[in-house]
Amino acid sequence: MTTTVAVVGCTHAGVFAANSILREHPDWQVHVFERNETVSFLSCGIALWVGGHVSDPKKMFYSSPQALEQAGATVHMHTDVTDVDVAAKTLEFRDLQTGDTQTLPYDKLVVTTGSRPIVPPLPGIDSKRVQLCKNWDDAVQIKERAHDLKNVIVIGAGYIGAELAEQFSTRGTQVTLIDAADRVLANNFDRFITDQVEAKYREHGVTLALGEAVKAFRDNGDSITVVTTKGEYTAPYAVLAVGFRPNTDLVRGQVETLDNGAIVVDEFMRASVPDVFAAGDSATVLFNPTGKLDYIPLATNAVRQGELVGLNIEKPTRKYMGTQATSAVQLYDLSLAASGMTQTYANNHGLDIRSTELLEDYRPAFMLSTAPVSCMLTWDPQTRLVKGAQFCSTTDEVAGAANVVSVAIQAKFTIDMLANVDFLFQPNFDQPVYYVGAVAAKAAAEQR
């Protein structure tokens, strides 16, 4: 008898899960359910599109419903899965265009429903002048509204909000960036890095309303006023980008989850109930710097977890290696990259972690041009294990440095090992001692 698989949700984890299942089991019946009209949208490109840095928005998709069908899937677009009975192994769904409802008995369930934007229950937040930034429809609306926009409010100074604020400002739009935290990118970088970013925002005329919690929205008809704990700000539109939470209501209470709803999965992407798998923003990840389950919604995690679903759906075959949450962003002429644990994260979680800072040019002074790199390495003073790193510079080479540290964390390098890695030296690229090794050596010297 043919095995029937239901894949619910199809952005990154869903696309890779469906393809990997069909590659490993081409004779299985794989049903893919997606409520939107697109799959595989690279939402990380929204801000770049707003700023005019995307050659063709169609290239912001790397797959399509047609490609999935060609691979052998039965694709249900514009379809809302309304109920899942994990114990009975049945799934109910409704065609959003016709209203027709059906029930699908399945053998295996893959929950790749992703995440949804956090929308706090604040007065006036349902105004049409409060814009979300998550999917293709949001992207189209933001792009259309950006045309001739004189000023805008961005709420949330994480990656999405930070990038939007930067791109709006480079278009000549007056931007107010609001966040309850006292720094931009507070969850991604420490102050050694974020102070430099904030200086760039101010240079470009961005108003930083930091340490201000939003209390309410007031729709004025032709504008929106955002009321915070410290003041009021008015613009034609406000973009809400304050984070995401797992979109897992369909199976909540039927499988084990974290308090925020993320489905707890093991190293083979299996949920707590047999024949249920989860991946991507709907699932937990193993955060290697702590060795504990965490919730870190990143496309890179979704892609790798989704791929593992197909490899493990019949029998456990390949283990998930965990994540360092390695990421990067470019803001104005600054490139920022990070991997692993920040000092702020360690402090907030009561962990005994040390950090070492280093500022030096990335290549020799005799070159016609060079640039300083701000480096910050976090490490465990007891085990000397590398726990994380952050880099900031006007050279985009720092993205590679974050990848280097990601490998070091995953391989359980100590600061001594990282300091003695055989890094290349060539004046076009780096100093005789590569700055990743240099900051590790400084850390090792501090601990002697």
TrEMBL record:
**Keyword Isomerase set for record:** no
List keywords of the entry alphabetically: FAD, Flavoprotein, Oxidoreductase, Redox-active center
All residue ranges annotated as the FAD/NAD(P)-binding domain in the record: 4-306
Pfam families linked to this entry: Pyr_redox_2
Which EC number(s) does the record attach to this protein? 1.6.99.3
Superkingdom? Bacteria
Instruction: Give the main EC class.
Output: oxidoreductase
Cofactor(s) annotated in UniProt: FAD
MF terms (GO), sorted A to Z: oxidoreductase activity
Q: What is the designated name of this protein?
A: NADH oxidase
- This chain's source organism reads Bifidobacterium animalis subsp. lactis (strain AD011)
